[in-house]
Write a structure and sequence with these properties.
globular; single chain; 14 helices; 13 strands; alpha/beta
């Protein structure tokens, strides 16, 4: 072969190589762009729903096929917690990615939150996302008092369809559906659905009887209604053609509305279900044991949208966990969670709150109560931080425990749920998962208690909690925006059964 032909052949090979390389480069580029495409976000939240009451979390009675299927194709977290066992601060923490003691008046139920705090919804909207919510969003409270022109959750919509109709072609979106289920008062619908009351496992911190089982059955029925709501949203998402590029989150805002649940730092008030699904981007069928928080969602959403996470956010993105391939523990340093409570409802003289902090690990729960002289469940006889805060609507479990508070087998449980508590509580979750036996003063747990106390103080110091480092606690004495609650009026039935007055005055 002549040198000319050899050169021509070589040039052809080089040209073919360049073409193939260009094609490969374009292909890789397209793949990279696709992987980095900013996802839609669909957040589906139940209200007052404890972590273990879903089929995929092991409950044998409640039927949640839609959520169970989503968990199978997605990622299920077994140690997820809210920042506070109370709607308003838990939701504020989720929006801001900050612990509640950083949020001033935002640490309270029925309070406000300053517009100086950045929320992921605004940041996503400013970057081009269409942002909306349905239901409660942030609240209950008065956002105008904090300087907001709209709910911090974004623009409110009646339906997901109405929201999607506002979307420009190709525009990413984030939509937060906040369900009413399973918040009290429950609909009397347990007899209308297939719930086996005999199979219900009543936790040992509640009395086991027909009244409690029926109460739990009504609660389960509302969870099943939430499962149906999730199914309806997924159907609409599929019809929109956006299923593959949408990050779907199913979670609750805090634990269930039972004695020792909502408004308490026991895990029945703070531990929540959390399922994240986007199979085309993140490997599904996984179960993650890392300790994570609802408030970790804010930096997660921002990172996925390629937005810088503000330094003031005290929480950590879950993207590394989502992008991993394994089960169990992914980030070993996520081995504890800190939760907090301040004022829940207006249920004590002068509107006093009940401050507390807790730290939970795989084996232990340590709680510090800052006002042990106060009634943690609210002043008697209404005990308003439990269930129906004014006894103005049916609350069968609470009513049973009030009625039979001196009965053997109920008295001990009543005291655990309603009585005053010591400064420190410690529970060995390995031997006592229902947190019935406070071992804080037992000698064999002294070192464990001291270790957890120091670990808690270190976290609170690092994140600037005035309860530890000093400074103004703006949540104390802050305005409560539900005036009716300040002068509770029990129902006529409660007045007759429990010998209550027509009206109580907590303002003084």
């Amino acid at each position: 072969m002549s040198n000319r032909l050899m050169k021509h052949g070589l040039l052809n090979l080089i040209l073919v190589g360049l073409i193939l390389g260009a094609i490969g480069f374009v292909g890789c580029s397209s793949k990279t762009e696709n992987q980095k495409k900013r996802p839609n976000i669909l957040l589906l939240m139940s209200d007052n729903h404890s972590w273990n009451h879903l089929g995929c979390y092991g409950d044998p009675v409640v039927k949640t096929p839609t959520i169970d299927s989503l968990a199978m194709q997605g990622i299920r977290f077994t140690n997820a917690y809210c920042a506070a066992p109370s709607c308003t601060p838990a939701r504020a923490s989720m929006l801001t990615g900050m612990d509640i003691w950083k949020l001033e008046e935002g640490a309270n139920l029925w309070g406000t939150i300053s517009s100086k705090f950045q929320v992921f919804t605004d940041m996503l909207e400013e970057s081009g996302y269409l942002v909306g919510f349905q239901g409660k969003g942030w609240g209950p409270g008065n956002y105008e008092a904090g300087g907001w022109e709209r709910n911090p959750a974004g623009d409110q919509y009646e339906t997901f369809q109405a929201f999607l109709s506002q979307r420009e072609k190709g525009q990413p979106f984030t939509y937060w559906f906040s369900s009413r289920n399973p918040h009290r008062p429950y609909s009397d619908n347990a007899t209308k659905v297939d719930i086996d009351m005999d199979a219900i496992k009543v936790p040992s911190y509640l009395p086991d009887n027909d009244s409690v089982r029926m109460d739990m059955a009504d609660y389960y029925a509302e969870i099943q209604s939430f499962d149906s709501e999730v199914g309806a949203f997924l159907k609409l998402l599929e019809e929109s053609g956006e299923m593959e590029n949408t990050l779907i989150i199913v979670c609750s805002d805090n634990g269930w509305q039972m004695p020792r649940g909502l408004a308490n730092l026991y895990t029945f008030g703070t531990k929540i279900p959390l399922i994240v699904s986007m199979p085309d981007r993140f490997k599904g069928g996984r179960v993650i044991a890392d300790f994570v928080g609802l408030s970790d969602l804010a930096p997660t959403f921002l990172e996925l949208a390629d937005i810088a996470v503000p330094n003031e956010m005290t929480t950590k993105s879950l993207v590394n966990i989502l992008e991993s391939k394994g089960d169990g523990t992914i980030e070993p340093d996520r081995d504890f969670m800190v939760t907090a409570r301040e004022r829940h409802a207006f249920v004590r003289a002068g509107g006093a709150g009940y401050g507390g902090r807790s730290i939970v690990t795989k084996d232990y729960l340590y709680i510090r109560n800052y006002e042990p002289e106060q009634w943690p469940a609210g002043d008697p006889p209404l005990y308003g931080d439990v269930d129906a805060h004014m006894l103005h609507y049916p609350s069968p479990t609470k009513e049973y425990m009030l009625r039979y508070r001196e009965k053997e087998g109920v008295k001990e449980l009543f005291n655990l749920a309603f009585d005053k508590r010591p400064v420190e509580e410690l529970f060995d979750l390995r031997a006592d998962p229902y947190q019935l036996n406070n071992v804080a003063e037992q000698a064999e747990y002294h070192n464990t208690k001291e270790m957890l106390s120091k670990k808690l103080d270190a976290y609170l110091t690092e994140t600037g909690d005035p309860r530890v480092i000093g400074g103004e606690m703006k949540w104390i004495g802050a305005q409560y925006f539900a005036e009716r609650d300040k002068r509770p009026t029990p129902s006529k039935n409660s007045q007759e059964v429990f010998g209550l007055k027509k009206e109580y005055n907590y303002e003084n």
